[in-house]
């Protein structure tokens, strides 16, 4: 226990002894974690925005004149892909059309019959399965036509995929840079203490005894980077959130009214930043000592 306490103290003291390189590592890791953290939160917000936009997407199910409206409604509601079903009668549909084309009211005067069919507006719970939903709805007796914004669904799907790829690439790239920086810092620290290490080896110190302070050093820098990155991320995100929510009406219309508040995820972000920082610091140290520390 005394040995472990000694090694931990030595690792923390080493941060101060090599303060220039430690500070450089701290800055690089902090910036990397800030970018990764902000990217992750923005990815979550983009997912929420895309989900909100998707919720506004509806499939129009047009009914035949002799259709059993009640039965079709029950079939649509019982479908596993259905989230919401709204019925629009032929009269309501015509009224909405007249309001929509109010500048051409003369087109709707003296109509011999109502050309607008009774319609069910169906919102599905998985936009990726919109093609399946369309095929299932078309197969229902009494349905003569189904309209769905297939291009819009494809666009949303491609957008999600693009955001996911960008997020993964960014996280991997920044994580790799952080590991390399920590590894190089540890390598310099090992080189500067080569005489001390040689003496320790002569008196019989084990490999783990020599390596542990470097491991603690990387871990400590990583934890500090995590705390700093969390604090900066909190300040930046809260300011951006306040900026975006000044006009809630406009953002709600765009599907952005439900973006995350930092208070909802603050503890998760703190845990993620500190864990990621400690992990990156530890990995960088292990790689460096394994390659450059000849013990």
Give structural notes.
Helix 1 crosses helix 8. This protein starts with a helix and ends with a helix. It is 71% helix and 8% strand. It has two domains: 192 residues, no CATH class; 91 residues, Alpha-Beta Plaits (2-Layer Sandwich), CATH 3.30.70. The chain has ten helices and four strands, in the order ααβαβαβαβααααα. By secondary structure, it is α+β, with helices and mostly antiparallel strands. It is elongated and about 105 Å long. Part of the ABC transporter FtsEX involved in asymmetric cellular division facilitating the initiation of sporulation.
Which structural traits does this protein have?
single chain; 295 residues; alpha+beta; Alpha-Beta Plaits; 4-stranded antiparallel beta sheet; 10 helices; elongated
SSE arrangement:
Layout lengths: L1 H16 L1 H37 L3 E5 L5 H10 L3 E7 L1 H11 L18 E6 L5 H9 L4 E5 L2 H43 L1 H9 L4 H38 L3 H6 L8 H31 L3
Antiparallel strand pairs: 1-3, 1-4, 2-3
Helix pairs in contact: 1-8, 2-6, 2-8, 2-10, 6-10, 8-10
């Amino acid at each position: 226990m005394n040995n472990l306490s000694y090694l931990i103290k030595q690792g923390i003291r080493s941060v101060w002894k090599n303060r220039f390189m430690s500070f450089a590592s701290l800055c690089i890791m902090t910036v990397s974690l800030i970018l990764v953290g902000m990217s992750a939160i923005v990815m979550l917000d983009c997912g929420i925005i895309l989900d909100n936009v998707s919720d506004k997407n509806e499939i129009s199910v047009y009914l035949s004149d002799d259709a059993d409206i009640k039965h079709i409604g029950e079939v649509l509601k019982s479908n596993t892909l259905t989230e919401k079903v709204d019925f629009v009668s032929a009269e309501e549909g015509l009224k909405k059309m007249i309001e929509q084309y109010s500048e051409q009211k003369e087109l709707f005067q003296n109509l011999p019959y109502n050309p607008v069919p009774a319609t069910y507006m169906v919102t599905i719970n998985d936009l990726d399965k919109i093609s399946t939903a369309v095929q299932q709805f078309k197969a229902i007796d009494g349905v003569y036509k189904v309209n769905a914004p297939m291009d819009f669904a494809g666009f949303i799907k491609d957008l999600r995929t693009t955001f996911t790829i960008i997020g993964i690439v960014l996280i991997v790239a920044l994580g790799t840079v952080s590991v390399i920086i920590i590894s190089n810092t540890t390598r310099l620290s090992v080189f500067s203490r080569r005489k001390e290490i040689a003496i320790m080896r002569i008196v019989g110190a084990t490999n783990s005894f020599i390596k542990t302070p470097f491991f603690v050093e990387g871990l400590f820098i990583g934890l500090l980077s995590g705390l700093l990155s969390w604090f900066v991320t909190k300040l930046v995100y809260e300011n951006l959130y306040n900026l975006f929510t000044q006009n809630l009406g406009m953002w709600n219309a765009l599907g952005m009214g439900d973006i995350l508040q930092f208070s909802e995820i603050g503890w998760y972000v703190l845990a993620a930043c500190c864990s990621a920082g400690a992990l990156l610091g530890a990995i960088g140290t292990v790689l460096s000592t394994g390659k450059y520390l000849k013990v």
